[in-house]
Amino acid sequence: MMRSSHVLSKPSCDEIYVVGEGETLHTISDKCGDPFIVEKNPHIHDPDDVFPGLVLKITRSQTT
Predict the structure, then answer these.
(1) Do 33 and 60 form a contact (C-beta atoms < 8 A)?
(2) Which residue in 1, 25, 53, 64 is deepest, having the highest Cβ count within 10 Å?
(3) Which residue intervals of 1-64 are DSSP H helices?
């Protein structure tokens, strides 16, 4: 029996991102390429108070 090892192995950095267990704004910013998460999410009043299930708007930086 073959099993796919890549199913759900890569978190998605869609426009709407749900924070997972153990993630910080820094790790999400690095993973998703968005250095301005706090500025784009006015509902974040304390950048240190990020918790699983928090919904964020992500806008990837466009580099060419």
Answers:
(1) yes
(2) 25
(3) 25-32, 37-40
